[in-house]
Design goal:
The complex is a heterodimer of chains A (about 375) and B (about 260). Helices cover about 65% and strands about 10% of the residues of chain A. Chain A is of the alpha+beta class and about 375 residues long. A 4-stranded antiparallel beta sheet of chain A has the order 2-3-1-4. Chain B contains 12 helices and 10 strands. The relative contact order of chain B is 0.17.
């Protein structure tokens, strides 16, 4: 930075220092006001350990948490939890779990305030930090805990949805098949009861044919029922595996605790005010810089010498007195002027400097 | 009209100055005052202004010709830069310091102070001047405003309507008038209107052998000054006077940067 430019910067600043310092004053005021209005907030933290695959999922071939290999498990979980917090269903689940339903219904707390009180951040590749904040330490704890519980439950529900559906369907189907089997069994037993085997000789051929038919019906129904039961059991096993897998992938490392210390500290307030002051200084510096580079006028003798191709004759300083001011204030001079005008009215108009001297000599002799 | 410097210098002068001495206690602060025969203060240059302009005078004296040129135009790029103040102060210094016969010719018919019907609260200016001399309505002697005891005379611009001004600027009578003044006075200082404001300013500035460009600090853009210099490139530039210069930067910062 040249000396000339540095001087221009200083000149711009000192000419309107009050205007240049206005951002500093205003932002400092904002900083102090925000510090004065700061309330003590309580934070409750919980940490989840997140894995993309468990040993069970590897062995059983059940799905991993994410197929995105660019994100760490914690980042992936953070993204999912953040998007969930934005949904009404999830946030209402948190509200219900944290016991804030009445407060929300009565309008003491809004849904958005609950939403804003939850913060998540990956603290390492596999750990996700979940924070609940509130003016009340109990609420902060409840929100953090409810968020973790709701998230785990949501992941489980999402993972179990297929197997649970299959399990439900197969169970219902098995009930139907059981009824069919019981019906055919009852029909067979009933027929045998009504047509007992003869003591001597063989059954009639028609009876034997009917018994065979009823027996075949029962066998078929029993086979369907047994198969469906087996499939339902498989579905239950799948659910159990998935549940175990999810629980293995999402584990509570640190359970949220009721905070005992608030976030209110003098150091934080000082830092906050200092940041505002610093921002004001940056804006002021920017204003001075912009003011300097947009000022295309000539400000110093050095600039005249460097920028113009003509010599600098003189630098005339700002003069405080002017002719008009002096004429207004100089009453004695005005009185003398009136006197002089009376004299000059007689026709003493000089024609050269000699005339002037003679005229003055005449006046002096009088 | 008279020019006074300070009390001590004034005390050594001849008796012809005693009339003016009567007003010394009123407005003496070491600056130069121009007082007409009615003892009316027409121009005042504070001591710091005269001190600065003495540097200009010294530079003009040490120029290539070895002396101050007989006819100098004082102009600027834009109006309000202080051409009238500088030209009057320069003429007063020439008369006072070099003891030369000096005539300050006001050729600026464009300033509102010259317009008798403007109604502005401006110092009263004579309606007789260059315009009337060129028209033959008054003689040069009638139009000249003389100083008391010193060697400075002032020829006002006189009243000229907007339609007359371009005609006056190009009139042959103006050249004749300046030639006549050149024979009667050692130096003729021309107060010329701003170059970028009036088309006739270049013509009027060309009536001088050389020119001084007045630039007001912190007001006139460099590009405007360059444009004015470009317009006057056919004339000999004596130099630039940086007018109304002031700095708010504390001296300790200036010294710090100098190191």
């Amino acid at each position: 930075m040249s000396r000339s430019f540095a001087l221009r910067l200083l000149e711009t600043f000192f000419r309107r220092w009050w205007l240049c310092l206005l951002p500093v004053v205003l932002l400092s005021g904002v900083g102090v006001a925000s510090a004065a209005s700061a309330k003590s907030n309580y934070f409750s933290h919980g940490v989840l350990y997140v894995e993309s695959q468990t040993l069970l999922s590897k062995l059983t071939g059940t799905g991993s948490a994410s197929n995105n290999t660019y994100l760490t498990p914690a980042q992936d979980a953070d993204a999912r939890l953040s998007s969930l917090i934005g949904t009404d269903e999830f946030i209402h689940s948190v509200i219900d779990r944290s016991g804030l339903t009445d407060a929300v219904n009565s309008g003491l707390v809004t849904v958005d305030q609950v939403r804003a009180s939850i913060a998540t951040s990956p603290s390492s590749a596999n750990t996700l930090r979940i924070t609940g904040s509130s003016l009340d330490p109990q609420v902060a704890f409840a929100v953090a805990k409810a968020t973790i519980d709701s998230f785990i439950q949501w992941v489980i529900d999402a993972s179990l949805s297929d197997s649970a559906t299959a399990e439900k369907f197969l169970t219902e189907l098995a009930e139907t098949y059981k009824t069919d089997r019981d019906t055919t069994r009852a029909a067979l037993d009933n027929y045998i009861t009504l047509h007992p085997e003869p003591v001597i000789g063989l059954r009639k051929q028609t009876e034997q044919i009917e018994i065979d038919r009823l027996n075949a019906d029962f066998t078929s129904a029993n086979s369907r029922y047994t198969s469906t039961l087996s499939k339902a059991e498989d579905a239950r096993l799948e659910s159990a595996q998935t549940r175990s897998n999810v629980e293995g992938r999402l584990r509570r490392v640190d359970t949220p605790k009721i905070p005992t210390v608030s976030s209110f500290s003098k150091m934080k307030l000082i830092v906050q005010v200092a940041m505002f002051v610093f921002l004001g200084l940056v804006l002021s510096a920017l204003a001075v810089f912009v003011g300097t580079i947009t000022d295309k006028t000539l400000r110093s003798a050095e600039e005249v010498r460097n920028r113009l191709a003509v010599p600098l004759l003189a630098v005339v300083p700002e003069s405080r007195g002017s002719v008009a001011q002096r004429q207004k204030t100089d009453l004695k001079a005005e009185a003398a002027a009136t006197k002089g005008r009376r004299r000059r009215a007689k026709g003493d108009q000089p024609k050269n400097f000699e005339d002037v001297r003679q005229l003055e000599a005449q006046h002096a002799n009088r | 009209m008279r020019i006074a410097r300070n009390k001590k210098a004034n005390a050594s002068r001849d008796g012809a100055l005693q009339l003016a001495d009567a007003n010394w206690d009123i407005i003496d602060d070491g600056g130069l005052r121009v007082v007409d025969l009615d003892q009316r203060l027409l121009h005042y240059a504070p001591v710091d202004v005269t001190r600065s302009l003495r540097y200009a005078l010294a530079r003009l004296q040490t120029s290539e010709k070895g002396d101050v040129r007989p006819r100098i135009s004082v102009t600027s790029a834009l109006s309000g830069e202080g051409v009238t103040f500088i030209s009057r102060s320069l003429a007063a210094l020439l008369a006072n310091d070099l003891r030369r016969n000096v005539c300050l010719v006001d050729l600026n018919w464009w300033t509102s102070t010259n317009d008798a019907k403007s109604g502005h609260d401006q110092p009263e200016r004579p309606l007789r001047g260059v315009a009337q001399v060129i028209d033959g309505k008054v003689s040069v002697d009638e139009a000249l405003v003389w100083t008391q005891g010193w060697k400075l005379a002032l020829l006002p611009a006189g009243f000229a309507s907007p339609a007359e001004r371009p005609v006056l600027a190009k009139a042959a009578g103006l050249v004749t008038l300046l030639d006549e003044l050149g024979q009667r006075f050692d130096h003729v200082v021309l107060d010329v209107p701003p170059v970028l404001s009036t088309g006739e300013a270049i013509t009027l500035a060309s009536l001088g052998e050389s020119f001084v460009l007045v630039v007001r600090q912190g007001v006139t853009a460099e590009v405007q000054v360059q444009s004015a210099l470009q317009e006057l490139r056919h004339l000999v530039p004596l130099g630039v006077v940086l007018n109304r210069a002031s700095s708010r930067v504390p001296q300790r910062f200036v010294h710090l940067l100098a190191e």
